[in-house]
Specification:
181 residues; 11 helices; 78% helix
C-alpha cells in the first residue's frame, strides 16, 4: 500500500487502520510494536494521514503509549508517526489542542538518550512551528522549550538536521517570546 503510486481509497486501507488501532490498544507488546511499525509505513501517504487524523482512538492510543515510556525505540517510532502527521497543516494546527503532544514530546526529548529520538522530536516541533506557528509557539513557550533548545544548541551533534532544527526553533521561539514581552 505504501508503495502504490495512485491515490488509495478508504475502502482499501480503513480495515487495516482499524486493525492497527485495535493492536495499539491491545495488551500484547508485540502487537503494539507491529501496529506502530505498520502505521509508520502507511503515514507517508497524505490520504492515510487524513484518515488517521479522524481516528481519535488510534491517536489517543499512540499518546498513551508515548506517555508510558516503552523505551527509546518505541518513543522514536511513535514520534516518527507524529512527525509524519504534522506535514498536514490542519493536523499541525490542531494536534496539540486535541492531544497535548507538545508537553509530552518535550518530556520525551528531555529524557532521551538516543540522537535519533532527538532528531525526530525536533523535526516534529519544526513542522508544528512551520505549519501552524500561532497554534503551537505559545504552547512551546509554556513548556519552556526555549531554554531546553538553547541547552541543546550547546551540544555537539553528528546529525546536521538536528543542528538546523535547533537553530530554527531557537530563532522562532526567541522571536515569539520577544513579541510577548
Amino acid at each position: 500500500m505504501s508503495a502504490e503510486q495512485s491515490e488509495l481509497h478508504p475502502f482499501q486501507y480503513s480495515p487495516l487502520l482499524h486493525t492497527i488501532s485495535g493492536l495499539i490498544h491491545g495488551t500484547s507488546p508485540n502487537g503494539r510494536d507491529v501496529a506502530v511499525q505498520s502505521l509508520e509505513a502507511l503515514l507517508p501517504r497524505s490520504e492515510i494521514r487524513q484518515t488517521v487524523w479522524g481516528m481519535s482512538e488510534l491517536l489517543e492510543g499512540l499518546v498513551s503509549i508515548l506517555k508510558s515510556d516503552h523505551g527509546p525505540q518505541m518513543t522514536y517510532q511513535i514520534s516518527f508517526c507524529f512527525w509524519l502527521l504534522t506535514f498536514e497543516p490542519e493536523i499541525a494546527k490542531d494536534i496539540n489542542k486535541k492531544y497535548d503532544i507538545i508537553p509530552i514530546l518535550t518530556e520525551a526529548a528531555q529524557s532521551a538518550v538516543k540522537e535519533k529520538v532527538f532528531r525526530v522530536i525536533l523535526a516534529t516541533f519544526h513542522n508544528l512551528v512551520a505549519k501552524a506557528p500561532a497554534s503551537n509557539l505559545p504552547a512551546m513557550l509554556v513548556v519552556k522549550l526555549l531554554p531546553f533548545v538553547k541547552n541543546l544548541s550547546t551540544r555537539k551533534w553528528t546529525d546536521e538536521d538536528i543542528v538546523e532544527d535547533i537553530q530554527y526553533l531557537k530563532e522562532e521561539l526567541t522571536a515569539n517570546f520577544q513579541s510577548l514581552t
